[in-house]
């Protein structure tokens, strides 16, 4: 029923091929991963992706303020800015997910009747943020095109999120993008709020 086929063809496939098809954002590969496997790394993957994003922001913050003041060095040694960046990244991702949930619940309330529907969608969204792991090579191989690479990573993560929503709720292509748009709107509102408070985001 979930795969919309007589049988899920990915049951016979090697995990590497399934992963490659998931990276290519194939809907049937997403269905197989979400419905026919027992993957339980949602929380760990989310924390790891947030740590990668926080480290990248912390590194950019450190580069932008080349201050030789000893107090400033002590502050970086204590890593308080890193923890702040982790908190900001967590709040941004939470607001992005809340925007998606509110939009989907408002537009298709029959799809999200039960608590299990919300949990499945949350797991799908968390798994589909695996593209943020590409931030690691972006940091390691630092070059002049890093902002462009980060933009491509963001687009890839949004496409993955769209496929996850589409597969989980069995929707057409337009509604997931509509939900993602409102999620981004809420996330950017949070960023603007932080900037008005004088925080470096």
Automatic annotation (TrEMBL):
Subcellular location as annotated: Endoplasmic reticulum membrane
Name under which the protein is recorded: Protein ARV
Ranges annotated as spanning the membrane: 85-106, 118-141, 148-168, 174-194
GO biological process: intracellular sterol transport; regulation of plasma membrane sterol distribution; sphingolipid metabolic process; sterol metabolic process
Species whose genome carries this gene: Bombycilla garrulus (Bohemian waxwing)
UniProt main location, coarse: endoplasmic reticulum
Encoding gene, per UniProt annotation: Arv1
One family name in Pfam for this protein: Arv1
Function: Mediator of sterol homeostasis involved in sterol uptake, trafficking and distribution into membranes.
Superkingdom classification of source: Eukaryota
Membrane topology summary: Multi-pass membrane protein
Gene Ontology CC terms, in alphabetical order: cortical endoplasmic reticulum; endoplasmic reticulum membrane; Golgi apparatus
Keywords from the UniProt entry: Endoplasmic reticulum, Lipid metabolism, Lipid transport, Membrane, Transmembrane, Transmembrane helix, Transport
InterPro entries in UniProt: Arv1 (IPR007290)
Family of this protein: Belongs to the ARV1 family.
